[in-house]
Design a protein that fits this description.
Layout (H helix, E strand, L loop, with lengths): L3 H7 L1 H10 L31 H6 L4 H9 L3 H8 L7 H26 L8 H14 L5
Helix pairs in contact: 1-2, 2-5, 5-6
Length: 142
């Protein structure tokens, strides 16, 4: 049996995520205590996730569309990802949680690019071939 009181106390983000699932599919009667208040409006774009930044960058989207997708994801996703209860202002979550997170992601990506860590992944076979070629060119005749 799941101890829902303990989940509320120790893992409130889990209880919050379950409550947001009510907008996707109604929660059963056993979880009625987790349902959002009936007077709250459903968040927009329910069930829509956040497109990974790498997918946005590799899709060739115009910069305006990239910024729109990155800065304005689904309000439902914002509430679920950042653990904001239904009824919390989407603008508050977007600018105090999501904006700083995007900046951190951008800085990490920039550091990785500058350090050469971001490169096209190779297949194992191609990597083995590159190692063999490098080893062959490093041999010396004594």
């Amino acid at each position: 049996m799941i101890d829902w009181d303990r989940i509320d106390r120790e893992l409130p983000f889990v209880a919050n995520a379950i409550s947001l699932l009510h907008y996707v599919t109604p929660l059963p009667a056993a979880l009625a205590r987790l349902r959002p208040a009936e007077n709250l409006r459903s968040p927009e774009r329910v069930g829509e996730g956040f497109v990974p930044i790498s997918d946005m960058l590799s899709s060739g989207r115009p910069m305006g569309q990239f910024l729109k997708d990155a800065l304005f994801p689904s309000p439902w996703w914002l509430h679920a990802y950042y653990g904001a209860a239904a009824g919390t202002s989407t603008s508050y979550v977007r600018w105090t949680k999501h904006g700083p997170r995007l900046v951190r992601w951008g800085i990490r990506r920039l550091r990785a690019m500058l350090s050469g860590a971001l490169h096209k992944p190779r297949s194992r076979r191609a990597a083995r071939g590159a190692r063999r070629r490098a080893a062959a060119t490093n041999t010396t005749d004594d």
